[in-house]
Amino acid sequence: xxxxxxxxxxxxxxxxxxxxxxxxxxxxxxxxxxxxxxxxxxxxxxxxxxxxxxxxxxxxxxxxxxxxxxxxxxxxxxxxxxxxxxxxxxxxxxxxxxxxxxxxxxxxxxxxxxxxxxxxxxxxxxxxxxxxxxxxxxxxxxxxxxxxxxxxxxxxxxxxxxxxxxxxxxxxxxxxxxxxxxxxxxxxxxxxxxxxxxxxxxxxxxxxxxxxxxxxxxxxxxxxxx
Length: 226
Description:
By secondary structure, the chain is of the alpha/beta class. The protein is built from 7 helices and 5 strands. The radius of gyration is 17 Å and the shape is globular. The model has no long low-confidence stretch (mean pLDDT 92).
């Protein structure tokens, strides 16, 4: 099997993305980050369940984006709840996060001898983050092929975005067809101390909406379902 680096947060989208990589014949090398995010529940899920969801290997990289702040996920700023989600960039956007994550993925891919990276970005049912857009991915892929040995000598590096033009409901349906167990995923930006999803942040709203539209019950445990 060809090796592929898969950015894996432990959330719904990245777990589905990993399952898709496996279904396409890749051995997924899962890459997660402890980046100073406001809670560890999603990362704990990633550490615990990476082997169960099919990762050939799982690495967790420690970086501290709290040194810069600039986001409700890397400061003590309140996470917005029950807001009307639109295309405006919310305070949960973490400056340059996907650029940083993809750069690490690129480095590991080169060491593994891989020319494939998977990332579960989505440009339909998402929170308006600029680093989830197709234009960003295309630009990063072009840069990667100019800046790496893999790009120059090994036939070109590809960044796969299998979820980018899917609704959240379509992502869930696709994952269920691949036997993804969504009870192993965590998506909330601001869970309770014991790990219950808040049910009211952007991520919870999008996840709940997706399950409703897909005609399935979300197996995640919620403090409330706002």
